[in-house]
Write a structure and sequence with these properties.
It is built from three helices and no strands. With about 80 residues, it is mostly helical. Helix 1 packs antiparallel against helix 2.
Amino acid sequence: MALLLALGTIVMTLLGRRDDIIMTSITTVVVMVVAAIDPQEAWRQPLLRLIDTVVGVAVGVCCRWIAAALSSKVGGEPAQ
C-alpha cells in the first residue's frame, strides 16, 4: 500500500498536480481496501470508481450549464 501511495504521489508531482495528491491517495486506499475485502471481484473496483467519476463530472457540468442558463435569464446577460 505504501508503495502505491508513493507511486501516486510521484506521478502527481511529475504531472504538476500537487493539489491532487491527497485525492489520489484517498482513491488508492479506497480501491485497495475494497479489493482486499472481496478479492474475487477486485478487478471491478477501478472500473466502478471510473464510472463514479464520470457520473460526478457529468452532474457537475449539467449543474453548471443550468446555473448559467438561469443566470442569463435573471440577469439578462448571455450565458458563458
